[in-house]
Amino acid sequence: MILLVGAALAQPVELTLWHAYRGAERAAVDALVDRYEAEHADVAITPLALPSESISSKLEAAIPRGNGPELFIGPHERVGAWGPRGLMAAAEHDAGTFHPATVEALTYRGVRYGYPLAFKAVALFWNKDLLAEPPATTDELLAVAGELTRDGRYGLAYESASAYYFGALLHGYGGGVFDGEAVSLDRPENAAALSFARGVQEAGLLPEEPTGALVSQLFNEGGAAMVFNGPWFLGEIDGVDFGIAPLPVVSETGLPAAPYLTVEGIFVSGEAEHPAEASAFARWLAGPEAALVRAREGRQPVAALAAYDSLEGDEVLAAFRRVLDTSVPMPNQPEMAATWEPLARALRAAMRGSVTPEVAMRSAQFEVDVALRPPPPEANPVPWIAAAALGLFGLLAWIGLGVRRAGGVAGLRGWGHAYAYAAPASIAMGLLVVAPFLVGAGVAFFTHHQGTFTFVGLANFLDILLARDFSPSHPLSFYFTLLVTLLWTVANVVLHVTLGVALALLLREPWVQLRGVYRVLLIVPWAVPSYITALIWKGMFHRQFGAVNALLSALGLEPVSWFAQFSTAFAANLATNTWLGFPFMMVVTLGALQAIPRDLEQAAEVDGANAVQRFVHVTLPLLKPALLPAVVLGSVWTFNNFNIIYLVSGGEPDGSTEILISEAYRWAFTRGHRYGYAAAYAVLIFGVLVGWGQATKTMLGRKVI
Amino acid sequence: MAESSVKAPSMGRLLATHGLLVLATVATLYPVLWVVKMALTPSQAFSLELNPLPTSFDLSNFAAVVNTEDAAGGWLFGRQLFNSVVVSLTTAAVGVVLACTAGYAFSRWAFPGRDIGMNLFLATQMFPGVVMLIPLYILLDELGLLDSLWGLTLVYASTSVPFCTWNLKGYFDTIPKDLEEAALMDGASRWMTFTRIILPLARPAVVVTALFSFMTAWNEFILAATLMSDERAFTLPVVLNSYVGEFSTSWGSFAAGAILVSLPVMGLFFALQRHLVEGLTAGSVKG
To answer: In 10 A of CB A699, how many CB atoms?
Structure first.
């Protein structure tokens, strides 16, 4: 008996820890886990590094089902949405261990969740070769930046179109996203901040379309004297003697331009099996001893204050420690998530000069209000259940009639072999594709708020179809997006087919040497992961530094701000997707051409038909049967091709280049987690596509299948 | 058709054809050269210069991507490469079995429900994936297939089945029925006719189906990252995507990883290009 208890005690408690760390930070945490295990024989911890893009949705799916980790590391903004839902457990802190701002960040409605590990906030980095002292006020900043901007160099570079960086200006002008508990964007203070941002841009002190990559590149090449950037920028600086200071004080108000503070916390899951052991480890990892290792080895600006006493001489971390004093915790209310996209749109529109700052802020507020609109009233499910039952009965009756028409069960039995052949694929698809879709689509009849779903009947569909939120001509309305989606699909398919057929025609001539080489090289876009190539295309369309504008300039044409108006932003998306999609059509056409006898064309040539006539009257009709299925499938894939829109134009300008599927994604993930609304979009997309399929079939006058 | 029946082209036409092809190839390769350049440059920056040709030849990014260790000190990248290969090959095998049988049934027998079935297969291509992730997670959890490479394989295979079935059905349609009828008369079973006569004839289309299923599994990362919870069970695209951070991305590592992931696919394309060309379409044209 005693032996048994002893054995049970010797079995270590197993804890899992999910995080999205890479590089030095990851190595530091892994080393600390080993150390903790060595000191605590009764605990075994397994860290798991996940892609930062999927960790959040994975946690949300796994924790409620008991599959989640005991511990996870993530940004504090989730506290408001996840704490009350029980995804994370409340935490006890030792008073005075952490900087108060980092504790405040982890507190939602009086409850603390998790332990602060490290923080991120934007600071001023300056090139010491170009500038002796950093400016202390915005007036100084503008003056210095003005002097330094010349000969292709910029005084200042930062991601000025990002709502995250813009936060510092909001605070510097006395504004902010929230006023108390409510989102309040259309305040004069916020408009003043926007005017300032626009003024800096108009004065030419900033490069155009400054992306993170561009900012790093300019700073490293001496092309930017000062940049606003966060601690992650440290890993990107290469060969520049630099200093770090807090952002300047806004001269008009005397307030510091206080950047957003993002705290990385370690959280104990609300469903943890061993909460005591998990909390003990979390507390230790956040505590001063481990913080020192994370700071030294992982180069993290840590939240535990005692660590800085032992870090004397580390100017970089000391500078971020000073930034911490003037930063404002990013609001952790769940409503915050719905503000990023509208605010970024307002920022871009105002910087472009297409609207005044006041108007931009007003429309951002309107969009936030729409996203946060209280859910429709709960509907009585009884009539719906009755209707669903009736529908199900109708379906069964219809199947029954079909069976009877086929000669009853006995008649079907004669087809037993056919069903046996079709069954494995049908069952697999029914189970793993159709069922998840039906369940997902069913969410369209509900509304989601903080983890609970309420049945609302057709309210989501009515809101969308009656254009309740946005008038049909507004870029965010269903009808506008539908038109863009149709245009997107048609334009893509036309270009894919045209290019694919043209190249295939060139490649089929037997006298073309190196055909095999061309063929393989032209297929390359199909083989490389599109995530990276799409972003390269986006870089090629950069206003100032992109290859496309360089080509235009070389041809003596004016460079174009590709993402500033609908037509060119759409064209940029289209070019990228054409590049990605033509190889498929080319291969299809090559195959089809092989099967077309050349003598027909030669006969036509003898009869005096020219090349165009031969193609239109002889080759094309023969190609049609092979191209039709490819066109139907290709158009369906293009219709739902979310990646390109998301990565290239990102919906710019003003959300007008979004397509239906990217809108559905935004409603689900970036506009306040309106899963019901997103699912309703998905159902409508499916409906439109079924209609599209029928229309293509009728139009082409042939059974495609 | 005999080569000799084709006229030798005029010099101008030859030059024009090659000119156009070279232009198309350059435009096609320009963005890809960027990936190569980023991979061979020893930094993690996303460079925006005009010259896409590598200015340095440094393999440290590749080394960093390949030389990863798991907790036990094992070769992690090797393990993940193995996972990717196994999952993709199994997906291809399962996908081919499912699509061949279904495609054959749809092609040969006008059984009740066939048209509905075919339309349903097409309809699954229209499902927006955005709503399916969580239900799929719950379903696999209930089936006990979470954290299992088998579960992942089954999902991939079912996802690629509709396209493959369509494609194979089109190809089977072009194979004359007399062949099977003769074999059946001689006493061969349906299964034997299918596996011994029809499948060998449909080889190009089967190869394409296999390649398509393989690619579905080879490049996917969202499902793999959501369904797997052990880095030793990750596939390469998940590893690749973990170089994308919330605030900054390790572009050098990402590019090196992207090239490593693309090479086998390009190798397959090259090896199978003749089949690829015939298998995708020959069917629907011959008929």
So the answer is: 8
